[in-house]
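Assemble and predict.
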Amino acid sequence: MDVPFFEQLHADGKLSAGSLNNIKKQENEKLFSLHRELKIILYLGILMLTTGLGILVYKNIDTISHQVIVIVIAAITAGCFFYCSKQKLPFSTNRVAAPNSFFDYVLLLGCLCLIILIGYLQFQYNLFGNRFGLATFIPMVILFFSAYYYDHLGVLAMAITNLAAWAGIAVTPMQLLKDNDFNNETIIYTALLLGLLLLLAGYASAKKNIKQHFAFTYSNFGAQLLFISCLAGLFHFDNIYLLWFLLLLATGYFFYLKALREKSFYYLLIMSLYEYIGAGYVLVRLIFKTIQMDASGITIALLYFIFSSIGIVLFLISMNKKIKTL
Amino acid sequence: MIAYNTTWLNNLYNRQQLQNAFTTNAISPQEKMAASELYPDEFYTPHFFIRIGLFILTALVAFFSLAFISFIFMENIEYLTGSLLLLCGLVCYATLEFFIQSKNHYRSGIDDALLWLAVAGIAAGIYWLGNKTSTGNALLIFLLALYGTLRFTDSLMSAVAVLALLAIVFFGYSPLGSFAKATTPFVLMLLSGLLYVAGKFILKQKQYRLYHDAGTTICIVALLCLYFAGNYYVVRELSIAFFHLTLKDTEAIPFGWLFWIFTIVIPFVYIFSGLRKKDPVLLRVGLILIAVLTLTVRYYYTILPIENLLLLAGVCLTAIAYTVTRYLAKPKYGFTAAAPKDTDALDTEQLEALVIAAAFSNTPKPEQGGSFGGGDFGGAGASGEF
C-alpha cells in the first residue's frame, strides 16, 4: 500500500490515527503469499500423476508389474476416499467449507484414480459386460455423489462433463466445437435436451436451496449447450431453420431475463453474441439462398453486419448501465 | 502525453488504494466512503464481460467496414490494398482519440480494440506500400508500439515494443559478420537484462506510477526474452533458420555447453531471486520456465519414458506443494501459504471448476476397445490462471 498517500489523507483530517497505524502495521508485517503458486503446482502434480498412472496401466498390460500398478491405483483411491470421509465436515444442503487446505485436492486425486480404475477394469475384465453405457455411467454417478457429499465444485464440473460424455457429447470449453459433429441430428437433439436438463438442475439448486453455489456451474454448461444446439439446428435443418431461429430467440430472451434477474453481465454477453451469430446467419441465408442476390446482396450483407454490430455495441452499453443501476 | 485524463487516472489509483485498505480492514467503511468522494472520475469503464463484448464487436465493425470499402474498390484492389489498410488504421486512430477525448472511454473494450486495430492497420499498410525489410518492419512496429505505450499506457503495446526492439537488434546486428552472428544471443540477453532494469525503474519511480501495468509487462517479457535468447533449443533452431548453420540432427552448436548452462540455470536463478526479493513476477516467470526447461531437455535427451516422467514429476510436485504448504502453515520469513485477502473467493472458485473440468476430464483410455472415446489426454492444465 502507498503509505505516503494515507499519511497525506491523515494530515488532511480524512483518516483517523488508528487507521493510519493499521496501514503502517500491515505494510510492515506484509506477508508474501505463495497461495496461488502452490495451488497451481499441486494441480499440475495431480494432473501429471494421474495421467502418468493412466498411461502406465495400459502400457504394461502384458507384464506382471501391471498388477502392481492396478493395486497401487486402487490403494491410492481407497486412501483418498478414506481420508476424505474421515476429515469431512457433516453434510449439509448449504455450502460446506473444506476442513483443511488439502481436502479438495485429495478428493480430486481419489476421483481421478477411481475413474482410471473403473475404465481399466472394464477394459480388461469387461466388468460391466457389453452395456457400454455403464462404463461411463458409473463414474458419473460416483462423481455426482462425491460432488454433493464432499461439496466440491470442480468434481461437479467433472461429473457434468461425464454426464454429457455418457449422452455422447463433449462439453468442456476446449472440445465443445472441436470434438462434436453438429451435423449429426441425434447430437443436436441430445445437446438441446441436456442443456435444458442442466438449466433445470441449476434452477432447482437455487430455488430449493440445495447446494446453491452449484447453480452457476449447472446453468453455465446448460446455457452453452442450449445456444450451441440452437445454432447447430439453425445451420443444419434446411427446411425448418426459421423454427430453430425462433427457438434461439426464445432461449436468448430467457437468458436476457435471467441476466437482469441475477445482475449477470456474463449471461448478457453470451446471449448477445449467440443471437448476433444466429441473426447474421438468417439474414445472409435470406439474401443468398432465398432471394439470390449477387453484388447488391454482398453490399446489403456487409452494411447489415456493420450496423448490427454498432447496434449491439449500443445495446451492451445501455444494458451495462441498466444492470448497474438495478 | 497520456491520452486519458491524468487527474482521473490518479484518482482511480487512489481509490484503489482505499479499496485495498478497506478489504484488509485497515480503514472503516465510513472513512473509505468519505475519502473516495475526494477522488472522483468520469471514465466510462463497463463491467469486464461487457468490455469483452465491446472489444469483439468493435473489431467486427472495423473488419466489416474494411471489407465493405474493399468491395467498392474491387476493380483496383491490388493497387489500393496498402493505402486502404493504412487509411483504416488512421481512421481507427482518429476514432480512438474521439472516444477517449469526448466519450471518456477508459479500458472500455472499444478503446482497447481501436488501439490494437490502429497499430495493426498502420503497420500492415506501410508494409504493403513497400516497407519490406525485416529491420524496417521491426523499427516501424517498435515506434508504433512505443507511441501506443506512452500515450495509452497499454500493457500489450509495451510487450510488443520490447519484442520489436529485440527484433531490431537481431536483424540489424547479426548480419554484420561472423563475430556478430556468434555473439547475437549474448547481445540479446544483455539487452533483455537492460530492459528488465528499465521496467523495474518504471515500477519504482512514483512519477511513472500510471505506467505501472506497462512496467510489469516489460519486466515479464524481458525476463522471458532473456531466457529464450540463451535457451539451447531456441539458439540452435534460430541459428539454423537465420544463419544457415548446417547441423546434423544430433550435432551440437558451437558453445553448446554454455547455452545448456543458461537453459538449466536461469529458471532457478529467477525462482531464488524471486523468493529472496519477494518478487512475484520473478518467481512466476521462473516457475513457468521450469516447464520450458523440462521440455528443452526432453527434446534432445529421452531420459525416461513419458509416463514414468509424468509420474515422477507428479509425485515430486505434489510432495513439494504439500511440504511447503505444511511448512508455511504459520507464516515464516515473511512467507505464507494462505490466500491473499483481496481476492474474490467465489468467482475464482467458479472459474477453477471450469478449468478442472477441462484439464482433468480426459483420463487416458486404451486406444482399442469400442466402448471408449479417443485417448486424448491432459495438457490444458497449464493454462489455469487463478
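Chain B touches chain A through 94 residues (CB under 8 Å).
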